[in-house]
Specification:
Helix 10 crosses helix 15, helix 11 packs antiparallel against helix 12 and helix 13 crosses helix 14. Helix 5 links the parallel strand 5 and strand 6. The protein is α+β, with helices and mostly antiparallel strands. The chain folds into two domains: 175 residues, Periplasmic binding protein-like II (D-Maltodextrin-Binding Protein, domain 2, 3-Layer(aba) Sandwich); 111 residues, 3-Layer(aba) Sandwich (D-Maltodextrin-Binding Protein, domain 2), CATH 3.40.190. The chain contains 15 helices and twelve strands. The radius of gyration is 20 Å and the shape is globular. The strands form three sheets. Strands 1, 2, 3, 9 and 12 form a five-stranded antiparallel β-sheet that branches. 41% of the residues lie in helices and 17% in strands.
Length: 325
């Protein structure tokens, strides 16, 4: 939206947007300098800095782009077998699977998506060591894998839940805003070197994104975003499906439609500030076992840069005379 509404251009920033196939590709291209910045999962700057699954590369974020936005989708075959919620899924796993684990798709091993699924399953008493297997699948490929029977369910951002539900292949028991309200979801990720060496451009990008986030939390802004995101260059999904989570009502499948408060939050409720609370939540829940709790404070200070956010937020109403990126 910052690109399409001219918010980058107003600050003299020349931005090229590139769509990637999955989060691992985003991480690798950013680490190797093919990307200057990227929309990213909130745990990714931490994981890159620590070298989890990649070459250790100091990275940071100075703006949180959204809270919430995910949902759990289960297969139609589970519905036909009598599954209606987590507790009936636990009964099904115990009685019908006979030791064969349920297979769930997640977008990354270190993500809110995995934590959302684990929380939902744990509250129902499902043994995740015995009864569950997680596999990483790029979000746009989730519906096809559910349809083919490769997955029993998945946790993904929208509109991929709605794609599976509209096709009649899945149904949604719960959204992330209902299960874990206001969890940090997406951030702008950059290498620390970029933030240091191109600080003017970096702060300008953040200022433009803060403006875009504010617009996306208005009815008019969301209506515009729905039409833009539907285009082939972006999400490439029907506007009607994107509207389900952006404006509601959300279609849970099997005749259930409801308005979901705060399905997405782009700025409301202090969404954008990369404060210690959001950073600590991300470390504790999305990188559990990878980081000692004694290191949380110092790592959050390095990676979730509230100081840079405050600088950019101060600049947001004062477009610089020139900048480039």
């Amino acid at each position: 939206m910052a690109k399409e509404l001219g918010l980058f251009a107003r600050r003299g920033l020349k931005i090229e947007l590139i769509r990637e196939v999955g989060w691992a590709t985003v991480r690798d291209r950013l680490i190797h300098g093919d990307l200057d910045a990227s929309h990213a999962l909130a745990p990714m700057p931490f994981a890159a800095t620590l070298g989890i699954g990649c070459v250790p590369t100091p990275c940071l974020t100075a703006v949180v782009l959204s809270l919430n936005g995910n949902a759990i989708t289960l297969s139609k075959s589970l519905w036909k077998a009598g599954v209606r919620d987590a507790s009936t899924l636990a009964e099904f796993a115990a009685k019908e699977r006979k030791g064969e684990p349920l297979t769930f798709g997640i977008v990354s091993p270190f993500s809110s998506h995995r934590h959302i699924l684990e929380t939902w399953l744990r509250r129902a008493g499902i043994d995740q060591e015995k009864d569950v297997r997680f596999v990483v699948v790029p979000p746009p490929q989730m519906p096809a894998n559910l349809q083919a029977g490769h997955l029993d369910g998945f946790c993904s951002g929208e509109p991929w839940n709605s794609v599976a539900i509209r096709a009649g292949d899945g149904w949604c028991p719960v959204t992330s805003s209902q299960l874990l309200p206001d969890h940090p979801e997406k951030v702008l990720m950059v290498r620390r070197r970029f933030a240091d060496e191109q600080s003017e451009e970096h702060l300008g990008i953040i200022a433009a994104l803060i403006e875009a986030c504010a617009l996306c939390d208005t009815a008019e802004g969301r209506a515009s975003a729905i039409e833009i995101l539907a285009r082939p260059a972006y999400v490439n999904a029907p506007a009607a499906l994107i509207r389900r989570s952006f404006a509601g009502p959300f279609d849970f499948g099997n005749g259930r439609e409801e308005s979901v408060e705060g399905f997405f939050r782009f700025q409301n409720g202090g969404s954008n500030e990369p404060d210690a609370e959001k950073g600590t939540w991300t470390l504790r829940h999305c990188l559990a076992g990878r980081v000692s709790a004694s290191h949380y404070t110092s790592l959050v200070q390095q990676v979730f840069r509230r100081d840079l956010y405050l600088q950019a937020n101060h600049l947001k109403n004062h477009a610089p005379e020139h900048a480039s990126s």
